[in-house]
User: Which sequence fits this backbone?
């Protein structure tokens, strides 16, 4: 994949902006960057769009996350980012600021800055959602705590998060953990 970043020249009048064209990246199934995720989520993540994959004027991260049966994404907040979650498959529960919401295919969540949230797989199958984070950075977290994954390979045995996970969180898109962190 190669791309040439498009930079808007300073002082270009609005009527000439149609001449400036951004990049295009098409990602087919099974070709996104993918990472196995540690406990408690298990499962895997696919990073579909991020600034390291395609030049963009407004940096976003977009991908999918699949959480194993009985797994969950622990309660956390983003102090510099807004997040959108759109349910694709499975059944679970989102807890946002202590309030439970059903997660079923088609459910959508906008989660603003500093909103405590967690996602819990309560079904009998894996749960999958699409995530969008603005500005980007979640893809870096997944890469740093996960292990590279190839499409179609078998699930690994559950593995622990890295010892420096709290440092990785603060360097990417997470606020400090709340002292009264809720459990699923």
Assistant:
């Amino acid at each position: 994949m190669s791309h040439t970043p498009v930079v808007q020249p300073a002082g270009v009048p609005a009527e000439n902006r149609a001449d400036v064209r951004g990049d295009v990246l098409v990602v087919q199934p099974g070709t996104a960057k993918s990472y196995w995720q540690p406990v408690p989520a298990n499962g895997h993540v696919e990073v579909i769009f991020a600034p390291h994959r395609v030049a963009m004027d407004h940096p976003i991260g977009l991908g999918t996350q699949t959480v194993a049966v009985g797994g969950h994404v622990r309660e956390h907040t983003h102090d510099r980012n807004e997040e959108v979650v759109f349910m694709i498959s499975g059944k679970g529960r989102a807890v946002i600021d202590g309030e439970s919401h059903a997660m079923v295919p088609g459910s959508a969540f906008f989660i603003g800055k500093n909103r405590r949230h967690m996602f819990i797989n309560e079904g009998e199958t894996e749960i999958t959602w699409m995530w969008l984070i603005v500005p980007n950075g979640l893809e870096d977290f997944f890469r740093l705590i996960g292990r590279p994954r190839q499409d179609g390979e078998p699930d690994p045995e559950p593995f622990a998060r890295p010892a420096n996970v709290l440092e990785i969180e603060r360097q990417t898109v997470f606020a400090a953990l709340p002292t009264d962190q809720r459990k699923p």
Notes: The first helix runs from residue 138 to 145. The chain has a mean pLDDT of 93.
